[in-house]
Every structure is written in structure tokens, then in C-alpha cells.
């Protein structure tokens, strides 16, 4: 395999587009799939350290780092579309727990991954930080078992938090 060519990328509307429009309201339609050219298991990890959304009650901004990890099946998410999708939460009002589940559900719908997890590390407001974690493994596969195991152990060795 020598790599991708224009024919395999012709359906992408955002990558390389110099006239990018930034949506300020939740926009899952922005997400664009690309073919996974590899059949082996491997993790893809995205970290978004500048994620923002709004509190649905007060309208105050919530800041977080969103960690996305997945084992793709036949489809990946194109990274520029993912950036614009995450940016679209900028004026979206939802609780932290809802945000991570919405992101995961949209990515499952787009990619149908073997396994996926989303972890939001929200900065404190009022002296309290909230770090919701969710995951999913394809039912009836080893990935479903993996999801169960990782859910039970996801915070077994918590990281040292120095930035909040």
C-alpha cells in the first residue's frame, strides 16, 4: 500500500478547504468518515485540550480536555471534521456527562468502531471538577468485554493532576 490518493479523498469537503466555516452551534453533520485501510487492531487517540461548551442552566462556559480513543473497524473520522465538530459545542448547553455521551454516540454512528472511549476532564467551577468517562465495545465481540473491563478499571491509577 503506497498511501491515499485524490480518488480516495474526493468525498471530503473540509480537508484542504481554505474557506472553512466555523459553526457555533452543535453540528454532528460536520463529521466526515474516511476508510480505514488496515485490518489489524490499533488505537487512534485524539486529545482536545481546548474544548468548551456551556452550562445549560447558567450559560457559563465550561472548559475541558476531551480524550477520544478508539479501535476502528472499516471507518475513521477525518481529523479536521472532528476539530470543527468539537468546536461546534462552543455555544451548546449541556451537562458534562451529556457532552461525553453525545460525542461518543455521534462517533459510533459515524464510524461503527470496534471500541471507543471518551473521557472529559473539565476544569473546576465552584471548586468542583467533573471528569465523566464513557465507553463502548461492539456487542458480542471481545471489544464488548474490553469495554466492561476498562469501565471497571478506568480510574484505577488516576493521573496526578497539576493543572487545575
CATH class: Alpha Beta
SSE ordering? HEEEEHHEEH
Task: Give the integer mean of the pLDDT values.
Answer: 89
Share of residues in strands: 25-35%
Could you explain how this protein is built, in words?
- The chain has 164 residues and is α+β, with helices and mostly antiparallel strands.
- The protein has one domain: 2-Layer Sandwich (GTP Cyclohydrolase I, domain 2), CATH 3.30.1130.10.
- The chain is 25% helix and 25% strand.
- It has helices spanning 6-9, 79-87, 96-111, 142-153, and strands at 33-35, 44-54, 61-71, 75-77, 115-122, 133-137.
- The radius of gyration is 17 Å and the shape is globular.
- The relative contact order is 0.16.
What key attributes describe this structure?
single chain, 164 residues, alpha+beta, GTP Cyclohydrolase I, domain 2, 4-stranded antiparallel β-sheet, globular
Tell me briefly what this model is.
The protein has a single domain (23-151), classed as GTP Cyclohydrolase I, domain 2 (2-Layer Sandwich). The chain has helices spanning 6-9, 79-87, 96-111, 142-153, and strands at 33-35, 44-54, 61-71, 75-77, 115-122, 133-137. The protein is α+β, with helices and mostly antiparallel strands.
Amino acid at each position: 500500500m503506497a498511501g491515499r490518493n485524490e480518488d480516495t479523498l474526493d468525498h471530503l469537503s473540509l480537508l484542504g478547504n481554505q474557506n472553512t466555516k466555523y459553526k457555533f452551534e452543535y453540528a454532528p453533520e460536520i463529521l466526515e468518515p474516511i476508510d480505514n485501510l488496515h485490518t489489524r487492531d490499533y488505537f487512534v487517540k485524539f486529545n482536545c485540550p481546548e474544548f468548551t461548551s456551556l452550562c445549560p442552566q447558567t450559560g457559563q462556559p465550561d472548559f475541558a480536555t476531551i480524550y477520544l480513543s478508539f479501535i476502528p473497524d472499516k471507518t475513521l473520522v477525518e481529523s479536521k471534521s472532528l476539530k470543527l465538530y468539537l468546536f461546534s459545542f462552543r455555544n451548546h448547553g449541556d451537562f458534562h456527562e451529556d457532552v461525553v455521551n453525545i460525542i461518543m454516540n455521534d462517533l459510533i454512528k459515524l464510524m461503527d468502531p470496534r471500541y471507543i472511549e471518551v473521557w472529559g476532564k473539565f476544569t473546576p467551577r465552584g471548586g468542583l471538577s467533573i471528569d465523566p468517562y464513557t465507553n463502548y465495545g461492539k456487542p458480542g465481540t471481545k471489544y464488548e468485554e474490553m469495554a466492561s473491563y476498562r469501565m471497571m478499571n478506568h480510574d484505577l491509577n488516576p493521573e496526578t493532576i497539576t493543572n487545575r
